[in-house]
């Protein structure tokens, strides 16, 4: 694949988890990073699965660049079409079809080339065959080979939004229905950002989409949805994976939560730091303990996303070293050395982050982010006799499930004198800022005419208009994600806080008795936008200011009313960090129950896979799948049949 464009951090996307993963637990930051790719590893000798080889690749040549304005520019959108399953609706059990065809299954492509979704969205292929469906996978604008012209286009990046992408999909559905002279029901499918798009597609275009499978879609991760109590929800979900409820052991959870404190306490002396660095297999024997803690905590997010019952290149392909598969149940694998009694005694209330730890001669009292103990007076002999170094070795082995997924590392971290890899720098929190004096103020925003909230794209630089970026046949993977987040203030705050009592982390990343405004900023405050980063490459049109609260996008997609919209299945895995931003019934969460009715008529449901990583339900089914995954797929199949039948019945009147 050609590298078709620059990658910039979009400061409108919350990414505390990225800071945690790459530097330390206490580092705070925001940056746009994709929520993950996936790659299901099938056993040797297993029957071949449907993939891109089954596609008829086509382009819709007349896709509009701007669906909400007067610009007449068009571009070619790529999509995969498979019609070998497609039958008449009556042939596959639908009634009252009047000769109409079976449903159209439509994948709302997200921030990657569409091949990834074609190859791995087994649910569409498997249900498509059973229900006689037409299979369509649409590629997101500014991804893969679906790249509008940018050179010479005024404000070219301003058209890279979810709102424009959904209008693309609606236009493409209309084109296909006209081509095939059909009014078959359309069911949208998507996972992660694609799941957000699928749910939003049904919300914004109910006349186009009969229903939507919105898998692992953190559409409720915006600050106004979460409130203060939800800011640590991703950390809580991650922690499920190292508990008995997630298939590991509660002893693993307890040992990990104690390890960060004990390592920090022992690291108060040069001798202690050297011993911990040796036990942690550091390339630099003088590695700071906080770096080691951050290095070990970071992979928990990634392994939680990819916590599947089968090996997978999920996330390693996106933000890791490449096509190196994580093992089946990687969080359980990480716990293997931690499922033992290290002799740690705990007193007090860890859930209130007010507790004491004793490990032979090591004593430490924790009060929120402060640890007061005897680390400064411990001798080398006491440290070695305490067992803490064995604990460090077990923590290191657990982290190495991710950190050494390539199986070629003999030590970890930079060598003496080497600088850390640039990716290990913590993203900076975007600060409140005044808009540039050159900001153009528009009267209204064309992409959200019914909104009262100010559209972010109204704040852009009037003196920088025509893009000078050199167009490429393809763009780099996830090219669209940064501009989408920037342009629409997609800031998912469910990743923002950890270590405040209900998770495996320490120290806390927020002050005691914090409020949501302490973490996110004051509601209505302007923050620095993303324009400067893209301007340097001749890509103009992104905003000069931003809004951490996402007033525009939460109003545009009716974020306070998700549970009221009919015909959407919001599925989540209880082991997946992004479940922290998922949609659930009132008073319920990822902790269950498995099936939660959202609408009074049961046409919309929240579905929970108790042993599920990121959109497990979208994968091809395997014998190793937990029972809840099997049940959730059955619920989804039943809902799809219900939605499609409703369409036939309504059309037949």
What does this structure look like?
The chain is an alpha/beta fold. It has helices spanning 16-22, 115-120, 122-130, 162-180, 193-204, 223-226, 233-240, 250-266, 270-279, 289-297, 299-305, 316-319, 330-335, 380-386, 388-403, 481-488, 516-520, 531-535, 551-556, 627-651; strands at residues 56-64, 74-82, 104-108, 134-138, 186-191, 211-215, 345-349, 354-359, 362-367, 370-373, 439-440, 460-461, 527-528, 545-546, 568-573, 595-597, 605-609. The strands form four sheets. The chain has a nine-stranded mixed β-sheet with strand order 1-2-4-3-5-6-15-17-16, sandwiched between helices.
Strands of the biggest beta sheet: in what spatial order?
1-2-4-3-5-6-15-17-16
Compute the number of strand runs: 17
Q: What is the average per-residue confidence, as pLDDT, rounded to a whole number? A: 89
> Which structural category fits the helices and strands?
alpha/beta
Gap between N and C termini, in Å? 50 Å
Q: Low-confidence segments, ≥5 residues, pLDDT <50? A: 1-34, 422-444
Q: Beta fraction of the residues?
A: 5-15%
Coarse morphology: globular
Secondary structure layout:
Blueprint: H1 16-22, E1 56-64, E2 74-82, E3 104-108, H2 115-120, H3 122-130, E4 134-138, H4 162-180, E5 186-191, H5 193-204, E6 211-215, H6 223-226, H7 233-240, H8 250-266, H9 270-279, H10 289-297, H11 299-305, H12 316-319, H13 330-335, E7 345-349, E8 354-359, E9 362-367, E10 370-373, H14 380-386, H15 388-403, E11 439-440, E12 460-461, H16 481-488, H17 516-520, E13 527-528, H18 531-535, E14 545-546, H19 551-556, E15 568-573, E16 595-597, E17 605-609, H20 627-651
Parallel strand pairs: 3-4, 3-5, 5-6, 6-15, 15-17
Antiparallel strand pairs: 1-2, 2-4, 7-8, 8-9, 9-10, 11-12, 13-14, 16-17
């Amino acid at each position: 694949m050609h590298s078709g464009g620059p990658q910039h951090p979009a400061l409108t996307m919350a990414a505390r988890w990225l800071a945690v993963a790459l530097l330390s637990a206490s580092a705070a930051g925001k940056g746009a990073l994709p929520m993950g790719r996936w790659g299901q590893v099938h056993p040797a000798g297993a029957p071949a699965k449907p993939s891109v080889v089954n596609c008829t690749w086509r382009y819709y040549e007349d896709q509009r660049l701007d669906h909400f304005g007067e610009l007449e520019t068009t571009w070619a959108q790529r999509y995969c079409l498979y019609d070998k399953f497609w039958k008449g609706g009556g042939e596959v059990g639908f009634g009252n079809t009047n000769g109409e065809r079976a449903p159209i299954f439509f994948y709302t492509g997200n921030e990657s080339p569409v091949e990834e979704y074609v190859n791995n969205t087994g649910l569409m292929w498997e249900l498509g065959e059973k229900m006689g469906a037409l299979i369509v996978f649409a590629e997101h604008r500014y991804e893969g080979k679906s790249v509008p012209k940018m050179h010479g286009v005024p404000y070219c990046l301003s058209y890279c939004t979810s709102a424009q992408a959904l209008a693309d999909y609606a236009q493409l559905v209309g084109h296909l229905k006209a081509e095939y002279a059909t009014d078959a029901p359309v069911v949208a499918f998507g996972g992660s950002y694609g799941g957000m798009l699928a749910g939003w597609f049904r919300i914004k275009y109910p006349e186009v989409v009969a229903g939507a499978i919105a898998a692992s879609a953190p559409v409720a991760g915006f600050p106004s949805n979460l409130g203060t109590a939800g800011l640590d929800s991703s950390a809580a979900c991650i922690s499920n994976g190292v508990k008995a409820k997630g298939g590991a052991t509660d002893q693993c959870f307890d040992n990990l939560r104690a390890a960060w404190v004990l390592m920090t306490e022992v690291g108060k002396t040069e001798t202690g730091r050297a011993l911990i660095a040796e036990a942690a297999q550091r390339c630099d024997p003088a590695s700071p303990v906080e770096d080691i803690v951050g290095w070990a905590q970071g992979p928990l997010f990634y392994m939680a996303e990819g916590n599947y019952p089968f090996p997978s290149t999920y996330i390693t392909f996106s933000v890791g070293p490449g096509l190196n598969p994580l093992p089946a149940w990687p969080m359980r694998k990480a716990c293997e050395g931690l499922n033992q009694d290290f002799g740690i005694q705990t007193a007090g209330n860890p859930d209130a982050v007010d507790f004491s730890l004793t490990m032979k001669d090591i004593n430490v009292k924790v009060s929120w982010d402060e640890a007061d103990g005897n680390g400064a007076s411990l001798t080398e002999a006491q440290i070695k006799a305490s067992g803490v170094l064995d604990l460090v070795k077990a923590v290191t082995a657990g982290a190495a499930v991710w950190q050494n997924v390539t199986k070629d590392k003999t030590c970890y971290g930079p060598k003496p004198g080497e600088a850390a890899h640039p990716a290990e720098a913590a993203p900076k929190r975007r600060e409140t800022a005044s808009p540039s004096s050159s900001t153009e103020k528009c009267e209204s925003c064309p992409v959200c005419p019914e909104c009262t909230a100010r559209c972010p794209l109204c704040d852009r630089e009037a003196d920088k208009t025509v893009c000078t970026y050199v167009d490429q046949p393809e763009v780099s993977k996830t090219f669209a994600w940064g501009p989408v987040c920037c342009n629409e203030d997609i800031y998912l705050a469910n990743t923002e806080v950890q270590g405040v009592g209900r998770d495996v982390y320490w120290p806390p990343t927020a002050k005691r008795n914090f409020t949501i405004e302490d973490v996110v900023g004051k509601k209505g405050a302007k923050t620095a936008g993303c324009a400067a980063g893209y301007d340097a490459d001749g890509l103009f049109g992104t905003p000069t200011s931003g809004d951490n609260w996402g007033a525009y996008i939460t109003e545009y997609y009716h974020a306070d009313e998700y549970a009221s919209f009919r015909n959407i299945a919001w599925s989540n895995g209880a082991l997946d960090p992004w479940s922290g931003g998922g949609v659930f019934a009132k008073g319920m969460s990822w902790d269950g129950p498995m099936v939660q009715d959202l609408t009074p008529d049961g046409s919309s449901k929240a579905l929970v896979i108790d042993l599920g990583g990121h959109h497990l339900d979208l994968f091809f089914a395997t014998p190793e799948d937990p029972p809840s995954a099997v049940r959730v797929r059955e619920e989804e199949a039943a809902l799809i049949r219900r939605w499609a039948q409703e369409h036939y019945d309504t059309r037949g009147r």
